[in-house]
Amino acid sequence: MPILFIFFGLRFMFFSNDHEPIHVHVVKGKGSVKENAKYSVLPEIKLIENNGLQPSELKLAEAIIEENAEIIVEKWNEYFNK
Q1: Which of 35, 39, 52, 79 could form a disulfide with 28 if both were Cys (CB 3.0 to 4.6 A apart)?
Q2: CA separation for the pair 23, 15 (Å, rounded)
Q3: CB 30, CB 78: distance < 8 Å
Q4: Is residue 30 classed as helix, strand or coil in its secondary structure?
């Protein structure tokens, strides 16, 4: 699970068996109880799934993804050899 970055207790990552379209997982917490969300990055940044993150956390996550979308796409292509 490559972790791209951590901001304000939110970890932005890929799973090693991920698939297209390009997306990122946002995880809060440690251990067996984790709140998480999944966002598509291309063709547009969009919330796909939310499992327990608060609206303010989702808003923050989306802003971070928007600001770093180019890096996320670059890291996705590097990791998955695209």
Answers
A1: 35
A2: 10
A3: no
A4: coil
Burial of 55 (0-12, 13-18, 19+ CB in 10 A): exposed
CA of 47: how far to CAs of 32, 42, 50, in Å? 23, 12, 7
Edge-to-edge strands of the sheet including 10-13? 3-7, 10-13, 23-28, 35-40, 46-51
Determine which helix (DSSP H) or strand (DSSP E) holds 68, and give its type and residue range. helix 55-79
**Neighbouring C-alpha atoms within 13 Å toward the C-beta of 47:** 16
pTM of the predicted model as reported, rounded to 2 decimal places: 0.90
Residue linked to tokens 């304000």: 8
Ordered mean pLDDT values, 10 residues apiece, the chain (82 residues): 91 90 92 84 95 96 97 94 80
